[in-house]
Design brief:
Layout: H1 2-60
Length: about 60
């Protein structure tokens, strides 16, 4: 009986561990995606700003 209870407890523990690891991996992946999107937006804003400054300099010259 003790062996069955121990096996059940270990199985339950392993299941809970893998479920939590899955959630951690999903959370990490979402954070990486958000960071990538933010960097892409910042790069796009920087390019647009450079283009506008170039056009402004050209129109003043």
């Amino acid at each position: 009986m003790v062996k069955v209870a121990t096996y059940f407890a270990m199985t339950l523990g392993a299941f809970l561990f893998w479920q939590s690891m899955d959630k951690v991996h999903v959370w990490i992946a979402l954070r990486q995606d958000e960071k990538k999107e933010r960097l892409e937006r910042e790069e796009e804003v920087r390019k647009m700003r450079e283009e506008l400054l170039k056009k402004q300099r050209d129109s003043l010259a």
